[in-house]
């Protein structure tokens, strides 16, 4: 208990919450998405170096540029929350560069999403996320423990407050040149990776051989592995694929009333080395992926980035396309994380 109460929380200038967004429509400008940070501030950036095996072990330097866009779609309320932290050291400085990005897709309200937004990263840091030397095993252990602590304390808060909100999550940590991805529920992360060994954007015929790689696995009650756990816990999955005929996801923060029947907040955690072939990552809630396929989204973002547009504009146009053109009815949130190679 003491560990949770003493952990740091993320400063409001680093996060984006839906209740601070203009609701209802996009206009023709790219300034309709309001953020807690001032729009005149410089776009969030971080610089990292990675080993380049194709050039005799020399180092490549990348800037990470990231931004978020959100819209409530046709819903009456916005229940998503997000985090963009190019420098995510907080009160745990170290030699190892740390960046963190996340989307929390709330359901039944936005309290669980906002709680996780504020506490998860701080709990992961306090659980031992490496800050000096990279240790993949230790990093994954810290992420798992951070999820556990966050859900445990969230459930305590929801019991005291009498609320039962839940939230899916997709999170990315960049530690040095290693990327860690963790998720619960149906929010997804998609990596855009070049098929060319040198990371070039263009092939000989002028096309852009960028592949969309799905980095996450959805957790829904209808899937066999998730269904088995739910049934073992005494829950049931109805003919509509929902837990107790109500909840579609099988892993989430919160959802206090479903924790005894198989809902857990244990994430899948994966990692990979960042190379010159990796161009950007898109984090999105299920509203975005309901109208965009992975390759479709990657092609859309890649086209805009090749035009030289900043990530802030690209993320807004992605969400605008989803809501206004593709008629996304759900809340829609997207974080675009671009890895720009420095010359």
UniProtKB/TrEMBL annotation:
Its cofactor is Mn(2+); Mg(2+). Transmembrane segments: none annotated. It catalyses: O-phospho-L-threonyl-[protein] + H2O = L-threonyl-[protein] + phosphate; O-phospho-L-seryl-[protein] + H2O = L-seryl-[protein] + phosphate. It is an enzyme of class 3 (hydrolase). CDD domains: PP2Cc (cd00143). GO terms for molecular function: metal ion binding; protein serine/threonine phosphatase activity. The keyword Glycoprotein does not apply. It holds the Pfam family PP2C. Residues 1-53 are annotated as: Disordered. Residues 20-46 have a biased composition (Basic and acidic residues). Residues 65-339 form the PPM-type phosphatase domain. SUPFAM superfamilies: PP2C-like. Residues 1-19 have a biased composition (Polar residues). Keywords: Hydrolase, Magnesium, Manganese, Metal-binding, Protein phosphatase. Belongs to the PP2C family. This is protein-serine/threonine phosphatase.
């Amino acid at each position: 208990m003491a560990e949770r109460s003493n952990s740091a929380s993320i400063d409001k200038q680093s996060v984006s919450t839906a209740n601070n967004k203009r609701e209802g429509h996009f206009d023709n400008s790219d300034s309709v998405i309001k953020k807690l940070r001032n729009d005149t501030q410089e776009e969030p950036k971080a610089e990292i170096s990675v080993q380049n095996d194709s050039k005799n072990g020399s180092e490549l330097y990348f800037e990470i540029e990231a931004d978020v866009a959100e819209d409530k779609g046709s819903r009456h309320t916005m229940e998503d929350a997000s985090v963009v932290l190019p420098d995510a050291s907080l009160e745990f400085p170290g030699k190892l560069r740390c960046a963190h990005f996340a989307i929390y897709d709330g359901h039944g309200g936005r309290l669980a999403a906002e709680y996780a937004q504020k506490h998860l990263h701080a709990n992961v840091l306090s659980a031992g996320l490496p800050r000096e030397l990279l240790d993949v095993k230790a990093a994954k252990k810290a992420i798992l423990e951070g999820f556990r602590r966050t859900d445990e304390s969230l459930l305590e808060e929801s019991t005291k407050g009498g609320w039962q909100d839940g939230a899916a999550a997709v999170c990315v940590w960049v530690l040095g040149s290693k990327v860690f991805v963790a998720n619960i529920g149906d929010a997804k992360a998609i990596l855009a990776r070049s098929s060319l060994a040198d990371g070039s954007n263009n092939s000989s015929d002028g096309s852009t051989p960028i592949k969309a790689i799905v980095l996450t696995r959805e957790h829904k009650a209808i899937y066999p592995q998730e269904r088995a756990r739910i049934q073992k816990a005494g829950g049931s999955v109805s003919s509509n694929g929902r837990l107790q005929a109500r909840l579609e996801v099988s892993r989430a923060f919160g959802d206090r009333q479903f924790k005894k029947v198989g809902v857990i907040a244990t994430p899948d955690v994966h990692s990979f080395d960042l190379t010159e072939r990796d161009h950007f990552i898109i984090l999105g809630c299920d509203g975005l992926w309901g109208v965009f396929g992975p390759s479709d989204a990657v092609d859309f973002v890649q086209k805009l980035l090749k035009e030289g547009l900043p990530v802030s504009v690209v993320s807004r146009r992605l969400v605008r396309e989803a809501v206004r053109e593709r008629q996304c009815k759900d809340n829609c949130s997207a974080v675009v994380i671009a890895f720009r190679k420095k010359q």
